[in-house]
Design a protein that fits this description.
globular; MetI-like fold; mainly alpha
Length: 267
């Protein structure tokens, strides 16, 4: 029975879960404005000086640029491979189709440490040194970004009737016109939301990067190093706050777009 006590209990439980998940994140963001370079509570005062010093840290800017490049390249590769795989699995009947679908999804289920170690072994076997740098990071991140794109696109394709494409062909459209005016508008929001999620996941991924980056630091690796050594904690807090902000935006947009069932609206 839906009683007032039940509703209050459910709301209280939901609030406690949200508090459990996001209270540590909120504390880190507050520490980014801490006037002292020592993390203690209560905070003595608030300042934005650490943001300026962090921005002028060349090591941080290099790590940020590398993280952005890796996320963009990995997302681009995932868009091509993931959408192509989704089209093949959803539109064609062939032997081993379900096995291929399983292989596409498997990297997301595997622990990141396993994927990183496997890629590290492959790079060593292939004779690629750690100084291979950005390319090895992109390959590592693309392995799980492909899964995001694949899942989004295949879910949209399976919920879309093939008769739409058939009707387009019956009306005289060729394959390219059917894709441009029928198929692509239908999957466009799935592609955009998948790309945003893949970018966010790649941007803050650390385990796979650890085994593929070599001497180059992405932002997660820079944070890990500074925390381990106990150095520059105020700048670490600032970087973490910025990463949280940069991650929230694409995840929020992807969540909004995933509600759409099809065509991106044109003004």
């Amino acid at each position: 029975m839906d009683t007032r006590a039940t509703r209050i209990g459910l709301w209280t439980w939901a609030a406690l879960v949200v508090l459990f998940l996001y209270a540590p994140i909120a504390i880190i963001v507050v520490y980014a404005f801490n006037e002292s370079n020592i993390q203690s509570w209560p905070i003595e005062g608030f300042t934005t000086k650490w943001f300026a010093s962090t921005w002028h840290n060349q090591e941080v800017r290099d790590a940020l640029l590398l993280s952005l490049k890796a996320a963009l390249y990995a997302t681009g590769i995932a868009l091509v491979l993931g959408s192509a795989g989704a089209f093949a699995v959803s539109r064609f009947e062939f032997f081993g189709r379900e096995t291929i679908s399983f292989v596409f999804i498997l990297p997301l289920a595997l622990p990141g440490i396993i994927t990183g170690m496997a890629l590290n072994s492959y790079f060593v076997t292939a004779g690629w040194p750690f100084t291979f740098g950005l390319r090895t990071i992109v390959i590592g991140h693309a392995t799980f970004c492909v899964v995001i794109i694949y899942n989004n696109v295949i879910a949209r394709l399976r919920s879309t009737s093939p008769s739409l494409g058939e009707a387009s062909m019956d009306l005289g459209a060729d394959g390219w016109q059917t894709f441009r005016f029928v198929t692509f508008p239908v999957i466009s929001t799935a592609l955009v939301s998948g790309a945003l999620l893949a970018f966010a996941l790649s941007f803050d991924e650390v385990i796979v990067t650890t085994f593929t980056a070599g001497a180059q630091n992405t932002l997660p690796l820079w944070i890990f190093g500074k925390i381990r050594l106990g150095q520059q904690l105020p700048q670490v807090n600032v970087v973490v706050a910025v990463i949280i902000a940069l991650t929230i935006v694409p995840v929020y947009l992807a969540q909004r777009l995933s509600r759409e069932s099809g065509i991106l609206r044109r003004e």
